[in-house]
Amino acid sequence: MGEIITVDDPADPRLHDYTDLTDVELRRRREPAEGLFVAEGEKVIRRAGDAGYAMRSMLLSQKWVDVMRDVIDRVDAPVYVVEPALAEQVTGYHVHRGALASMQRRPLPDPVDVLRTARRVVVMESVNDHTNIGAIFRSAAALGMDAVLLSPDCADPLYRRSVKVSMGAVFSVPYARLETWPKDLTTVQDLGFTVLALTPDERAHTLDRTAPHRMDRVALMLGAEGTGLSPRALAAADTWVRIPMSHGVDSLNVGAAAAVAFYAVTAGRPEE
Phi and psi at residue 230, in whole multiples of 5°? Predict the structure, then answer.
């Protein structure tokens, strides 16, 4: 059972995990280095625990203690209870959801291990916006994608904003990072995946024509908002695919495009 501790000093070193949460550059360096990530909100905290992540501590306002009582009773981690104003001093923003938890990161698996039993995989190149990362993970989980592979420069799926936007879906879909980009795409192909590069280029085949749902193993590759996939990534793909556009619209944002493409990859596939 977690020990409930009232804290009234924003400089208390026990609150270190929660300091400066709005400083994106600082937190994206600190959190992986210190082996932690921050889950925000009741549902996300519960989903992180259900996914097997160990809790380091919780930061709650008083009214959330009863709401989170069952979680507190299950964990062996301190629960720091603070006034909302103090939480804002520590974190740098108004914690309107009232509940934060510092969770322990786990080592990322080897990409080959993630791919071994997968058939429908997302590959992201240089997607460095945390909102887009979260949205893509949420769609991947909802639409039945089996795993996610990230290029070395993709944003952290466990950053607070990514986790929040995904509603905890980052805990549901296995993911790994490819170390050498785009060379490591050959590993994906060697395991029998057809790598499809999603691009608005008119030379690409439409998803309907490509029929990815009939392919045995598919790796759908997405690029960053605006710039899209790099020439090197496009050259490494087996096939270019696109979503047909109407009314003079040239493309969708990467989060929306991902959801459409995931449905095309998974819809109509025979039950496994």
Answer: -75, 160
Contact predicate 143/262, CB 8 Å:
yes
211 backbone dihedrals φ, ψ, rounded to 5°: 55, 60
- Residue 264 clears pLDDT 80, i.e. is over it: yes
Phi, psi values for residue 140, rounded to 5°: -60, -45
Q: CA 172, CA 122: separation in Å to the nearest integer?
A: 14
The CA distance from 40 to 166, in Å, is 11
Q: Could you tell me the sign of the dihedral formed by the alpha carbons of 212, 149, 255, 42, in that order?
A: positive
pTM over 0.85: yes
Best CA proximity match to 83, nearest among 98, 67, 69, 71: 98
Residues 6 or more apart whose Cβ sits within 8 Å of residue 170: 133, 134, 137, 157, 158, 162, 163
For residue 190 the two structure tokens come to 């060697």
DSSP letter for 11, please: T
As given in the structure block, the two tokens for residue 118 are 């997968």
Angstrom CA distances, 48 to 31, 44, 104, 152, 187, stand at 16, 6, 10, 24, 30
Cα 84 → chain centroid: 28
Residues 198/261, Cβ–Cβ less than 8 Å: yes
SS3 5: strand
pLDDT band at 268 (very low <50, low <70, confident <90, very high): low
d(CA 171, CA 226): 27
What is the rounded average pLDDT of the residues 145-155? 97
Residue 12 φ/ψ region, left for φ over 0, alpha for ψ in the -120 to 50 degree band, beta for the rest? beta
Can you tell me whether residue 212 is helix, strand or coil? helix
3-state secondary structure of 217: coil
Ordered strands of the 36-40 beta sheet: 4-6, 79-81, 55-60, 99-104, 36-40
